[in-house]
Amino acid sequence: MTWKKRLARMGLPILTALALTGCLFGASFNELYQLPRLPAEYTELQAQLDAIQDQDAEYAAPTSGANIQPVQLVDLDGDGTQEAVAFFRRSGDEQPLKIYIFQTDDGAYRQTALIESSGTAFYSVQYTDMDGDGLSELLVSWRASPELQALTVYGLRGLDPVPLMTTNYVRFTVGDLDQDSRQEVTVLRGDGEDNVAEFYTWREDGSLAIQSSTRLSMTMAELQSSTIGTVGEGEPALFVTGVLDETWAVTDILVCREGRLTDLTISPTTGVSGEIARYVGLRPMDVDEDGVTEVPVPVPLLEVEDLAAGTSADWKISWRRYDSLGGYREACQTYHDQEEDWFLFLPEEWDGRIRIRRSGAGDERATVFSFQRQGTFVDFLTIYTLTGANRESRAVRGGRFILLRQGGSTIYAAAFTEEAASWAHTIDEEALRSRFRVIQREWGS
Q1: Residue 383 pairs with which residues in a beta bridge?
Q2: Residue-wise DSSP of 74-89
Q3: pLDDT above 50: residue 424
Q4: What predicted TM-score, i.e. pTM, was given to this entire model?
Q5: How far apart are CA 114 and CA 102, in angstroms?
């Protein structure tokens, strides 16, 4: 590799740092152009990566998921030492996508494996010990074409990759649905006119193959999320949610019974899930942290006849907890303020008795809770979202108290009105804090 190529790889930040520290003065360019003194094993690894690039290859990091670095250090064989996994693309090859695996040997990295595949780009990679043997399986997905994604699961036997399964997919999940202490793959994809979930389980030869499949209640274009959770007394289940016409959320709840996928929500009349509700951007989750996954169902805060036409668009969320037979009951109710990234567990006594409105703008926004009294609504609680330079002082102004500080830039505060004391169902500051939560945004692939 020429010194110009090396300089391009290093980039301007190194030279900028040297200039800021005064190191450029009195030194020649050749003296300044020196790689940092790295530990020997990384120096050898960098030399091998440079050699791959010299063969007209370029880094091709995965574009989605948690692992998006072009070179990743991970302990694949469970021996406490990290292997290096590097992602490249060599455009002129028949199989342009390449994954190089390097293992340490006497303190230095050496290449021990190469995975090659066709396609245009790596989409995601996961490292998971699926069968419990101490070795990580590699779940690699890539763009096979602009319209198609493909998934291959590789087993590592002595760090020699062996393909265990390959399929096209729209979304996949990994989890132990059949409770055999090994993790299986459930693939969601379109199959002609049908949209299906395919359940891949382990075979005696160590490969993964389709055990069963079932139709889904949504198309792949409508698919919104897929989440491994639980029903009943902790039975694993796959919650698959789609959004119909940008208005309605439909959820399939898939469990494994005697090796076959079964949909707990299927309607014998329509042949699709009966779990259909207004879509408000929420997905199934263990909202109350009791170990069982709940399904969100928005309902009006007040009965429709109690709402003045056009004055309220407020919804509470009724969270349904399913049992192992497909029946459900309400686990809890929440109010989600998704604009301000918080939610509140609503006391049962507030059910059908409150209205909520939003006010404010800029660095001080408010959500106001009101209760019914003699045909009118009386404000009793305000929750504030405070940002800006003086948020600390505003958080304790005029009877306010702090609920939570979030991310170093946002404070959530609250205040009760004088009228709150006159309502039989008012809660105190401690109870409000115990019911207040910040919405956790999750990355998905």
Answers
A1: 367, 414
A2: E-SSSSS--EEEEEEE
A3: yes
A4: 0.85
A5: 9
